[in-house]
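protien #1 (seq + structre)
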Amino acid sequence: MQDRLWRIPVLTTLFVAPLIIGACSSGGQSSGIAQGPSDRALEARVAAPPDTVIQRAWETLRADGITPRSFQRSTGDTANVASMESEWIYVPNVYPTAPLGSLPESEKYIKMLFWAQPFRGGTVLYIEPIYDPTDLPTEPTNWARTRTLPSAHPAWQYVQYTAEQLARRMEQ
C-alpha cells in the first residue's frame, strides 16, 4: 500500500502527478464506482476539500470534451465523500499522440473513476483508469470485464496528461 501513496501537503506540489502515474502496475479487475477504489487505484493526498478536488477533476475532463457520466455523494453525507465516473473515453480523440498503433479497438477506450475522501485537513483522491480488454465498451458498464489500466499500456499517456491538467487546476 505504501508504494501507491503520496503525501501532497500544499496545492502547488500536486504537480508531482507524474510520480503518481508510475504507481499502477499490472491490470487487475475493477469493482466499479459503487464499490470504491481497488487496491490498484492511484492515491494522492491533496490540501483541498473533497468537493473542490472532484470539481477540479470534472473541469479537467470537460476541458477535453469528456462528460462525466455520474457524480455522487454518499447518502446522508456528513463526511463530504464524493465520487465521479467518466464516460468511455476514446483515447485517439482526446490524445492523438498516444502510440496506440496496432492495439485492438477495445483497448483504445478507457474510463476514469475518481473518489475523494476527507483526510486530516485535506483529501485523499483515488484515480482508477479502467478498460475492457475483451470487447468494445458498453453502458451500463459490465464491471466483470473491466480491468485497471496497466501503467505500461500506451493509453496511460492520457492518464498522465489528465493528472497533470488536474494538478494545474488545483494550483488555481
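ok now protien #2
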Amino acid sequence: MAKFDFGKMIMKKKHFSSGGLTIDYTELGTISLNELRDAVIADIEALKDIYNIRFVKGPRLRLYPTNEYGDPVRLVRPAGGTIDFMDTHHYRPACKDYDL
C-alpha cells in the first residue's frame, strides 16, 4: 500500500488554465513505479468515494524517470531513439462510446 496521505491532495490551477485538478506526488520523492501505481489508484478511489468524481476528460500523467538514486534517465525505444511522449497502452473498445 502506498504511503500517501489523502489530506495532501492539492488542487492547483497554475498548470491548467481549464481549471483541472493536479494531484501532487513530489513529497513522495524518488519512488518505484509500483508505489506510484498504488498511490494513483488510492487517489482515484478517493476521487470516486470522497468527491463523487465519475468521469474525466483528457487526463495526462507526467513522469520524470530516474534511477534509484534520483538521477535522470533517458527513455530509449527498443528499436533505438529516445521518447518524451507516449500514448496510452490501455485499450478501450469503440463500442463503449455508443449504446450498442
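Confidence is low (pLDDT under 50) at residues 1-7.
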